[in-house]
Design a protein that fits this description.
The chain is of the alpha+beta class and 230 residues long. The chain contains seven helices and seven strands; from the N terminus they run βααββαααβαβαββ. The chain has a domain of 157 residues: Gcn5-related N-acetyltransferase (GNAT) (Aminopeptidase, 3-Layer(aba) Sandwich), CATH 3.40.630.30.
């Protein structure tokens, strides 16, 4: 498959709508979230608001022909994010109560999962370590784009003297996902099965917490382990 040339650059406020759209277009295992949760505005608020409002300098986008087709949203200040999330949860809960009467059964099922299962199914993450989210639309889905975006972010963290970074990523019941993560120097800390997509896929879905040291000084950001890209 031929991948069009892509560019990784810093996020700007003009990219906000595109980032929120991509968040929703990839929210269901890389596909649109709508069959699972119909309220795109609420979904994008939850997954992007903190990063775009409070750490936009730690956000990067991927473009093809000047169109935003992917993003990486970073958090360097975990305590700040946790305080924001606590306050945001109250606001979002109020919005849910106001809008709930018009939601479809699938959306209500997703909300029940959040209330009943999310606390025990979402694996713990290091509370004192920052994290990132990364998503791409199909035109940008390639090892080359993933590598360059991650490499750009890690270089940014090194310049900021950030020592470690974590993430939580969806994986399936095989080793391919782990192999890719380990290739880029991540350690898999845990893996919990999540059931919020159970009505929509016959695959077993896991959420894995990963952690990586951020190279400092002259150390290579990402070691060239594989011979091919793309």
């Amino acid at each position: 498959m031929n991948i069009k040339p892509f560019v990784v650059r810093r996020y700007t406020p003009a990219d906000r709508d595109a980032v929120r759209r991509i968040c929703c277009e990839t929210g269901f295992l890389g596909r649109p979230i709508d069959p699972v949760f119909e309220d795109r505005d609420l979904f994008a608020d939850f997954f992007t608001d903190y990063y775009l409002r409070y750490e936009p300098d730690a956000a990067f986008v991927v473009t093809i022909d000047d169109a935003v087709v992917g993003f990486l949203l970073g958090c360097r200040y975990p305590w700040r994010h946790q305080l924001f999330s606590a306050a945001q949860s109250i606001l979002l809960a109020a919005k849910v109560l106001i809008r709930c009467h018009r939601y479809k059964p699938e959306t209500k099922r997703y909300l029940r999962w959040i209330l009943r299962n999310a606390r025990r199914e979402v694996p713990p993450a290091p509370r004192r370590v920052g994290h990132f989210h990364i998503n791409f639309l199909p035109p940008a889905k390639s090892i080359a784009a993933f590598r360059e975006t991650l490499e750009t972010f890690l270089q940014f963290l090194a310049e900021q003297r950030i020592a470690r970074i974590s993430a939580q990523m969806v994986t399936f019941d095989d080793r391919r996902g782990f192999a890719l993560l380990e290739r880029y120097g991540f350690q898999v800390l845990n893996r919990f099965e999540i059931t919020k997509f159970k009505e929509f896929t016959n695959q077993t879905v896991y959420l894995s917490t990963i952690l990586r040291e951020v190279p400092q000084g002259q150390e290579r950001i990402i070691q060239p382990i594989w011979k091919t890209e793309g």
